[in-house]
Amino acid sequence: MIRPDFVKARISGDHHHFKDHQNEIRIFRRRIAFCGLMVLILLSVIIARFYDLQVKNFQSYSTQSDRNRIQVRPVAPNRGLFFDARGKIIADNRAVSTLTLTVERVKDLEYTIARLGELVEITERDKKNFYRALKWRRRPYEAVALKYNLTEEELARIAVNEFSFDGVEVAGQLVRYYPYGDLFTHVAGYVGRINEAEQAGFSKEQLHQYAGTQSIGKTGLEKYYESVLHGEVGQEKIETDARGRVLHVIDTINPAAGKNIELYLDAELQIEARDAMQGRRGAVVAIDIETGGVLTLLSSPSYDPNLFVTGISEKNYRLLNTSRDLPLFNRAVQGQYPPGSTIKPVLGLGALQHDIVTPQTRIVDRGFYQLENDNRLYREWKREGHGDNVDLYQAIVESCDIFFYDIGRRMGVDRMHAFGSFFGLGSQTNIDVPSERMGLWPSRAWKKRARGLSWYPGNSLNMSIGQGDVLVTPLQLAAMTAALARRGEFVEPKIAKKIGDAETEKVVRSVYQGDQANWEYILRSMRDVVHSFRGTATSINKNLNFTMAGKTGTAQVVSIAQDEEYDSEALSERNRDHALFVAFAPYSNPKIAVSVVLENGEKSSLAGEVAKRVIIAYLEAYESAQ
Questions:
Q1: Residues 146, 152, 154: CA angle, nearest 5 degrees
Q2: What pTM was computed for the model?
Q3: Mean pLDDT throughout 193-200?
Q4: Are the folds of 71-263 and 267-314+333-625 the same?
Q5: Which whole-number Å values give the CA distances from 239 to 208, 311, 382, in the listed order?
Q6: Residue 68 — pLDDT band, cuts 50, 70, 90?
Q7: Could you report the per-residue pLDDT of 593-626, keeping only the tens digit for each?
Q8: CB neighbours (10 Å) of residue 82?
Q9: Which is the catalytic residue, given 341, 443, 460, 595?
């Protein structure tokens, strides 16, 4: 039933319950206008941002974008090689595969290394070296080596699983390799990883130069010629994916390889010297008399330099560093020994030149020498002496100490010091190997400065036989002998013969001409040390088809009281006398000069045998090359 009041309301025209279309249109228009305004505002913001990105800051954002996918990385140059005199490689570069990590792209470093350890063997040493290298890393996003020398099997395992690792890459690189092992260690030296101290000392230019290089010359020729061996760094522009893997190389500036160095060293001669030493401690140095080129430079014992190239283990280094035989020590240029009688030809020549003695001078040798008002007896190595009529010739041939004691007293320290200096005693030879020591050729000024004491006549006597404070290196002895063979011309010894295409320069330091008759006298005496039946080295002249000049020497390691005799059996092996020998050959046309030091070898004839083998090997090779 329809309610009467509702019908009445509808009929009476009450419109409050009907829609107001005009009002709705107004509201809709206002809303449209607001939305349009908002769209315009947002569109303006987008346009403004688009302008900022594409016009105003286009270059900046473009560069940042490129950096996310395009990088410039340094390319290490190939290190220069060492060749011996016959063209054999002494220091080479060997290609190896290296597992590297770029830590900025690795989410969990420890976890990643642990997972990699399931694929390849990663030792604690590898980890330690990795974290050390990471600490010394020179720039962000630089890959750091985790493991060197991957095997084919290890490479295959990594290749299969590499997709699951971010920031992990196998890189091919050249690593230094020494094919002769321990043969040339003390002369060629070795390269090793750049450490924090070395990096801290780099100039800006060096930081750029070594940007792509992990190693640097540490010792020997590797260190001395580092600047020419290293070469010039290159660079390449690469595109990477989101994981940092290289997609392709966009552009490359090739590095300039380091210069190769040709050496005077002869591998065959070095092997002969090593074999002749038979494992004894000591050194052998051989010099080309004409050029001053070093043919052999051997320090025994030695060690394998390849251990140091990618980082030596603590165990191996400790074994080398704590060995009593000191294999890390370069005896040839750093070992300082009393020269003993090997310097007698120099002082004998000086005595002749200064008219201290003449060829006719004779002395009485009863086995001891005594200074006036001095109770001390200066003993002769030959207990009973050399007789009543000893001249300079006999004093050199038979190594008579008493004659040289008298020379030392009469010549005095000042003239001995000045004359010995002409032959390189007491000064560096300036050889192209670092850390050369200068020995000690005493003077009044030195003793006053070093000890605050005056020089005494007894000091001159000890100096005259190469004892007391006198010290020389095996290299100095070889250079001195070469200067004797050249009759007073001292040529600085050199190991590098050619750097790149440039020949190294022969440097004549000093020339002492002197009287030719005196030269003949001294050199003939040295010849008869070997070839006279009374010579101290007569035992080595058997089966020689050439003439050699030489001089033996022994040097005390511990002092013996003047009323005691030297007793080898009563001394420990390391307290016995050193054995020395110097020589040049052939006598009439000298080609090679050699010095040998055998630590605690006692018998100079043993050192003479080593020198003999080296000289024979050289002359045979020289003759076959003619």
A1: 45
A2: 0.83
A3: 82
A4: no
A5: 22, 32, 81
A6: low
A7: 999 999 999 889 999 999 999 999 999 987 777 6
A8: 27
A9: 341
| Domain at 71-263, CATH from 3.90.1310.10, 3.30.230.10, 3.40.50.20, 3.90.1300.10 | 3.90.1310.10
**Residue among 574, 573, 579 at smallest CA distance from 598:** 579
Which sequence spans correspond to the domains of the chain? 71-263, 267-314+333-625
Query: How far apart are the C-alpha atoms of 540 and 579, rounded to whole Å?
Result: 15
> What pLDDT, on a 0 to 100 scale, did the predictor assign at position 163?
78
Compute the mean pLDDT over every residue in the chain, rounded to the nearest whole number. 88
Residue 510 a catalytic site member: no
- CATH for the stretch 267-314+333-625: 3.40.710.10
List CB contacts of 349: < 8 A, sequence separation 6 or more.
419, 484, 514, 518, 519, 522
Which of 230, 246, 227 shows the shortest CA–CA distance to 238? 246
Is the per-residue pLDDT at 201 higher than 90?
no
- For the chain, state the CA radius of gyration: 40
Give the HSE-up count for residue 372: Cα atoms under 13 Å, Cβ half-sphere. 3
Crossing angle between the packed helical segments 267-277 and 604-625, to the nearest 10 degrees: 160
Give residue-wise pLDDT tens across range 490-510: 999 999 999 999 999 999 998
DSSP line for 541-577: -TT-SS--EEEEEEE-SS---TTS---GGGS-GGGSP
Average pLDDT in the 335-358 region?
A: 97
Q: Tokens 């220091």 identify what position?
A: 91
- Predicted confidence at residue 402, as pLDDT, reads 96
Neighbours of 233 (CB within 10 A): 18
